[in-house]
Every structure is written in C-alpha cells, then in structure tokens.
Amino acid sequence: MYLTVKEAAEYLSIGETAVEKLIQQKRIRTIFDGEQYLIYKEQFNTHLKQIEKYKLLVEEVLSEPIPEDIDVKDED
Prior knowledge:
The protein has helices at 5-12, 16-24, 45-63; strands spanning 2-3, 30-32, 37-40. By secondary structure, it is of the alpha+beta class. It has a single domain, classed as Molybdopterin biosynthesis moea protein, domain 2, CATH 3.90.105. Strand 2 and strand 3 (37-40) form a beta hairpin.
C-alpha cells in the first residue's frame, strides 16, 4: 500500500515538512508518479517495531526499584 506525503506524516505522527526532508535526504524510499511522491507503507514496519521494543525496554528499566546498597556510609 502506498501513502501520500500527508498520509505518511499522519501515519508516522510527524509533520509533512519532516517527511519531505526525509525524502530529500533519501532516508525514505519513494516513487514519483509525475504529480506527487508515493511512499511504500511497509518500509516503516521494522522501524516502528524497534521503537515499540525500545519503549518497553525503557518502561521496564524505569519501573525497576532502586536497590538499597548495604555498604553505604554516611559521610557527614
């Protein structure tokens, strides 16, 4: 399935200008049909899966309690 720049921006939750910059930097693969750029939606699946894994990892790390250190000495 192909998306327009506007649809891709909505799908990625970023602005249209950001998508256009990524296209210019060749970080997003596109097809130009003579009128507009078309972006293949499936190229984002791996990236979005990695972001979800990273979010889960961050949540897991942040939810761990800080262990009490037995050898802590008060230096006052």
